[in-house]
Model the fold of this input.
Amino acid sequence: MKSIFLIGDSISLYYHKYLKEILNDEAYYSRKGNEDEIKSALNTPNNPYGANGGDSELVVSYMESMVENDKKYDLLLVNCGLHDIRVDRETLKRQIDEEKYKENIEKIVELALKISNKLIWINTTHVNNVIHNNRKYGYLRFNEDVIKYNEIAKEIMQKNNIEIIDLYYFTKNIENDNMYRDHVHFKENISKKQAKYIYDNIKKYI
Done:
């Protein structure tokens, strides 16, 4: 059986178990973080530690450690961007600026060649500006930044002939006010649909 490994932000923490169920005995599937770390990360999905991939800087660091430990998979699924676009309420600066994000994504592609036989990029899901930024605390996020950073990643992936799973438009096309469990994460029924969509895009490689 083929081996599949996932590195992703908190959105992926919610669809992870459904993707695991769908894959079942079709592939050896795992992700960053063990089951205890996944449960812990789900309790604090906004904090990038343990199973949460965090921003592109953290993903690069984690992938470098994978190379050092001689990890190798048939298929590597990677996503980052949602943490990169976090905007500090006081300074109004993004966590990772566009140029650094580009550098990090290029590095991720480079590292992926050492870790896997094939990389597939999963782009960042949309943000509802009103729902997200009506909070009186925490980081701000803007959907225009999601679009911008997805485009940066897309250009790099296309340049390297790397397939993209367009989770942004898939999820955006089913958007409604009842799809969110909080300011940015999705309810169970949406996470299930996301898992099935990802599976439909990778099953040809299993």
Remarks:
- Helices lie at 10-23, 35-43, 56-68, 98-115, 129-133, 143-159, 167-172, 188-202.
- The mean pLDDT is 94.
- Residues 132 and 184 are 6 Å apart (CA to CA).
